[in-house]
Amino acid sequence: MNTGKYNKKNNSESTFMLIFLVIFALCFVPFMIKSKNNKSNEKQTVKNQPSKTTISEETTTQPQKPGINFDYKNSNILTNDDIRSEAAILYDVSSNTVLFSKNKDKISFPASTTKIMTAYVALKYLPEDYIITVGTEITLLKPDSSIAYLSQGNVISLKDAVYALMLPSGNDAAYAIAVNTARYVSEDPAMTDEDAVKYFCNLMNETSTEIGSENTHFCNPDGYHDLYHYTTAEDLLRIALKSAEIPLIAEISSAKYHHINIESGEEFFWSNGN
Question: How far is 68 from 238, CA to CA, in rounded Å?
């Protein structure tokens, strides 16, 4: 896949925006959990949680982890009391340094920030101009899902599907991308919707491990709440940094809107929900 080159300054600005959105989203994760169980019970029932890594307050690196390594530097920029979120991380892309962290290894539910990984995995395996046909997989959406108003039979390029995924946070786009990517990678066009989603989630988890997000597990492409769908602030930072290396993701994260006529002729206008 040819991702092309883009202006270094624009890439830096887009990366800053993407990391900001990650931190912003984490602040609201507790309010987006859709579960009847209270949080204390959920923490007790999650099984096989990865072990936690303790980072000292002094400047350190983590060479033992794959993928991206960065420094932790003691800073007076913020204190834990300044941040209401249960977990947060502030990162300086210019110095490769974490300036502040709070409960960076705390298991948290990523909600729609999951879609950053969904976009990255799809673009890892498919070119931007790959054509997706929306099928029965959109019937897998859960109640109250945010959508991009895609319909069965829509024919759309992967590029525009990723816009539909990230700007309006379309869960319908997430499932369409996941199922079509899974059938392509597996070379099994007859794979059921459910099996294709599982296959795609396996790709997400494999990719997460490759980039060093070891305390993360995905079981759907849209981030709808599940006890076994979790991440940490540090892992989400790793995912955001890696995904920002793809020009299209950096471009979409800073886009205000996207107006398009898709391949099958339908017109869409998506604005940035962030």
Answer: 7
pLDDT attached to residue 75: 66
Q: Which helix (H) or strand (E) holds 99?
A: strand 97-102
Q: Report the alpha-carbon distance of residue 209 to residue 217 in Å, rounded.
A: 9
Tell me how far apart the alpha carbons of residues 213 and 67 are, in angstroms, rounded to a whole number: 9
Per DSSP bridges, beta strands 71-72 and 131-133 are unpaired
The DSSP result for 105-149, as a single string, is: T--B--GGGHHHHHHHHHHHHS-TT-EEE--GGGGGPPTT-----
CA angle 209, 213, 214 (to 5 degrees): 70
Residue 12 CB-half CA count within 13 A: 8
Interacting residues of 68 by C-beta distance below 8 A, sequence separation 6+: 211, 212, 238, 241, 242
Distance from C-alpha of 92 to C-alpha of 100, rounded to nearest angstrom:
10
Q: Which residues pair with 54 in a beta bridge?
A: none
How distant is the alpha carbon of residue 108 from its chain centre? 13
Tokens at 103, concatenated: 């409960």
**pLDDT tens digit string along 4-16?**
444 444 454 554 4
CB 176 within 8 A of CB 119: no
Would you call 87 exposed, middle or buried from its count of C-beta atoms within 10 A (0-12, 13-18, 19+)? buried
In the chain, what is the greatest distance between 2 CA atoms, to the nearest angstrom? 57
pLDDT tens per residue across span 224-233: 999 999 999 9
Contact between residue 264 and residue 21 where contact means Cβ atoms under 8 Å apart: no
Q: How far apart are CA 34 and CA 146, in angstroms?
A: 13
Average pLDDT, the chain: 82
Residue whose entry in the numeric block shows the structure tokens 């929306």: 134
